[in-house]
Amino acid sequence: MQSILIIQKYTIGSKIILGVFIALLLYLLIQYILKLLEMGYVMKYKRPYFVHFYTSLRKLSQKQNDVLKNQFRFFNKLSEKDKKYFEHRVASFINDKDFIGRGDIQITEEIKVLIASTAVMLTFGFRDFYIGLIQKIVVYPDKFYSKTNKNYHKGEFNPKLQTLVISWADFKSGFEKPKDNINLGIHEFVHAIHLNSLKERDISSTIFTDSFKELTDLLTKNKPLRDELTQSHYLRNYAFTNQFEFLAVTIESFIETPSDFKLQFPEVYFKIRQMLNFNFAGY
Fold first, then answer.
1. CATH class for domain 46-283?
2. Which residues lie closer than 8 Å to 117 by C-beta, 6 or more apart?
3. What pTM value is reported for the model?
4. Where along the chain do its domains lie?
5. CB-based contact 96:130 (threshold 8 Å)
6. Are 123 and 129 contacting, i.e. CB atoms less than 8 angstroms apart?
7. SS3 for 97?
8. CA distances from 78 to 2, 16, 75, 88, 279 (A)
């Protein structure tokens, strides 16, 4: 009798294990099929099937929310639904990163909100908005000495240390002159997003890198367009240093003067729009 009970328990345990194994296989199979279906959608439409999906939305404190509404112009261009998503992402980004002050600067809610908002703005069309290659954000009051290349900088991104470093004075200056196509925060975050997209293989990173390749191919093959772009002085000369600086400067211009960009260079504009999946805020 005892032997029969042991066999029955063994049989029941085996069935449970087999059931769990089958359920796991089904889950993995469904995930694989969904990825294939989305990849087909991405190949056809050049955008993710969905961007925002949250079980709950985080909120900023009242003080943080006031900074966002009163000092970050882009936020006020969004629909009411997108504003809730944007706030959630800013709160999540702040919670995910280490903000470190250098010199005599103290990390305030204003600093955290405005820096996080810049990152969230650039990745608002991405599903994964955290920019995993950034773990620390170091803020200096002004230009700082970089040990990397023995020179003074306004900003830099160090992928090995997973650290973004900025001058707060120059960061703020970029938003005080919103139409000059020079914005330190945007510039440095684009470098981080660019390098992060080369490392990751999520849907948004794939779209970003593939679209940049399409843009590079377009400019390589279309000499008249390339010449027009370089001779127009719409992009400052620093853009033509290398492909990384070209992309950073181009996205600065895309964010700050989209109407001018679209009017002068529509082919380039729409490649950047596709790259960032920027289908909101009037872009």
1. mainly alpha
2. 68, 72, 74, 75, 86, 90
3. 0.88
4. 1-45, 46-283
5. yes
6. yes
7. coil
8. 70, 50, 6, 14, 11
